[in-house]
Amino acid sequence: ELAGLETRAAVEWEAYACRTLRDNADSRRLLPTGARYLEACEVLERSVRDVTGDELLAAARLEPGEAALLAGGPPCVTFSVAGKREGLQAETGRLFEDYVRLLRDVQPAGLIFENVKGLINAVDESGERGGAFRRITNALEDAGYALTARLVNAADYGVPQYRERVIILGLRGRRAPAFPEPTHYDPLRPQPLGTSAPWPDVRSALAGLPPAARPGEAPPIPNHVARRHGDEVVRGFAATPQGKRNPAYKRDRLHWDRPAKVIRAQGKPKADGSGQRHSSHQSIHPEEHRQLTVRECARIQTFPDWYVFPATFSNGYRIVG
User: Fold this and answer.
1) Which of helix, strand or coil describes residue 321?
2) What does the mean pLDDT of the chain come to?
3) Which of 201, 206, 251, 255 has an alpha carbon within 20 to 30 A of 271's alpha carbon?
């Protein structure tokens, strides 16, 4: 939306994610482009498997070939190095087939397909290493799109966070799109040509935030509430230097002058769509002996402060991740 596109339809099956989209759309926030956030968007709250191309086009109020962009990507858990690495042998990994199905029906001018770094060497249905990436790119090309793919670190594009993702761009036809070159660089290394600024750091991301509210208090801005930790946890956090991992709680303490560790969406959702308790484990604040608030995570994800998330910790952390 901030890039000037008008989102006409969004498909999402998690209830709290859909609620977040609708709550922020209802705010009718005026963007710098002059548009109101998600004003034209219909949220389809169900599995992508149950959405036909005709339904998606009807929701978007478009005919085949009129859409500018179809953006998406299957769940990352089956490709992530933190999971079982099942690749396309897992049912969720094969959800890319529904993306391709809708791509053929909608015929947008372009596509963006995103997933975790592990997609590059994930296995296909036969267990062949790297087969998943080849299967996916072949299917996108067979749908009529010329592709450009890169593994990118979001910090190289001005995000105050180490976040590596595979991004596939496509244009309908035979001309592959140019990939945007990095704009930022690691200040601890020589400056590459074409970049103009050093990586943004945690200090810049959290600048201007008021003190976090205690649990039960009204936060000064939405979702800026500190979790309550026991005395033993606080002592463990206090003994963890900036930039180091706490071995007992397996959380990283962020460094003021470096990008943050990746903000993750942890834990599988419950049947009602809410996050599990263990989905609320995030990095430790650089200075205070607590984990980040949901708002601090949102800042690191580059969400504006007006963007609100579920008030409960588990749901807020999961959705912002």
Assistant:
1) coil
2) 91
3) 251
